[in-house]
Design goal:
Blueprint (H helix, E strand, L loop, with lengths): L1 H19 L9 E11 L6 E9 L3 E11 L6 E14 L4 E9 L5 E16 L1 E11 L9 E8 L12 E11 L6 E9 L3 E11 L6 E14 L4 E4 L7 E11 L2 E11 L9 E8 L3
Antiparallel strand pairs: 1-2, 1-8, 2-3, 3-4, 4-5, 5-6, 6-7, 7-8, 9-10, 9-16, 10-11, 11-12, 12-13, 13-14, 14-15, 15-16
């Protein structure tokens, strides 16, 4: 009995190995990918969102919006740039990429990246669903080392305000600043351009070392662009930049399953740049 089970295990295991040994190629990376950028180390925090199209033949293009330090420590600026470049995928799923950004003054900045496909599905050939990239050069403005996480978006359907509808759980993380900050909560999206919810944020208390949970309700408008990026513009508060990072198509609409957001301005209490992740909950 033991040997029968072992034989079956080896047969099944062998079948999986044969499937897994199919080589990755440049064609494994094809279509639009939502990309989140964060920096590690450096003098200042950095966060960004991008939509990159890989053509399956070794070329890429897209747009990026980066939240970077402004004229002073407390100021931030959004820089939107066009991307172009090349990529090469090795048979094992690792690879290299060169990304060029066209700056407002007409100059072109070029950076090198290493990459690895972290999730793929088999459909005649291996198709990358997620990949992780690290930039070779330190960022000039922040001094940080950049990491990028890219997730494939559906080929069919379209993004509209209806792409965010229902209940989403979210987490909040503070980067940089004088003191640490974390938060969590629930957001309810109406699919028509408005959302509400409750935030529970861990903030400094009245004395040094003391922390308190601060709970606050909110209602905010939002707008989603055709590429899955968007902005929330709460009155009297910092704008919030976001990108849908995972979606499924429902009646022609790409419905967000996960999203990433950046609070554009530094939190005045902690000095943090805040970013967050959202996950759709069952209806």
């Amino acid at each position: 009995m033991f040997f029968s089970i072992l034989a079956l295990f080896l047969i099944l295991g062998h079948g999986k190995v044969v499937q897994a040994n199919g080589n990755f190629t440049n064609a494994s990376l094809q279509g639009n990918y939502a990309v989140v950028t964060l920096n590690i180390g450096g003098q200042y925090p950095q966060a960004g969102i991008s939509v990159i199209n890989y053509d399956g033949k070794g070329k890429l293009s897209g747009t990026t919006i980066q939240n970077l330090p402004g004229a002073s420590i407390s100021e931030r600026m959004l820089t939107k740039l066009l991307l172009s470049g090349t990529y090469t995928i090795n048979p094992d799923g690792t690879g290299q990429s060169i990304i060029k950004t066209s700056l407002p003054d007409g100059t072109v900045k070029e950076v090198n990246l290493a990459l690895v496909i972290t999730q793929a599905q088999e459909d005649n050939a291996k198709q990358a669903q997620k990949l992780y990239l690290i930039q070779e050069q330190l960022d000039e403005k922040t001094g940080g080392l950049l990491k990028l996480e890219a997730t494939k978006l559906p080929n069919d359907g379209k993004f509209t305000n209806a792409s965010l509808k229902g209940k989403y759980a979210y987490t909040l993380t503070g980067h940089g600043g004088r003191v640490s900050q974390l938060g969590l909560g629930i957001m309810n999206y109406d699919g028509e351009g408005s959302f509400s919810g409750n935030a529970i944020v861990n903030l400094p208390g009245e004395t040094n070392g003391k922390r308190v949970f601060v709970t606050a309700p909110f209602v905010r408008p939002y707008n989603i662009n055709a590429d899955g990026t968007g902005i929330a513009t709460p009155p009297g508060e910092s704008d919030v930049l976001f990108i849908i990072t995972k979606a499924q198509v429902d009646d022609g609409i790409k419905v967000a399953q996960e999203a990433f957001f950046i609070v554009n301005q530094i939190n005045p209490i902690t000095g943090n740049l805040l970013t967050g992740e959202m996950t759709k909950l069952p209806n």
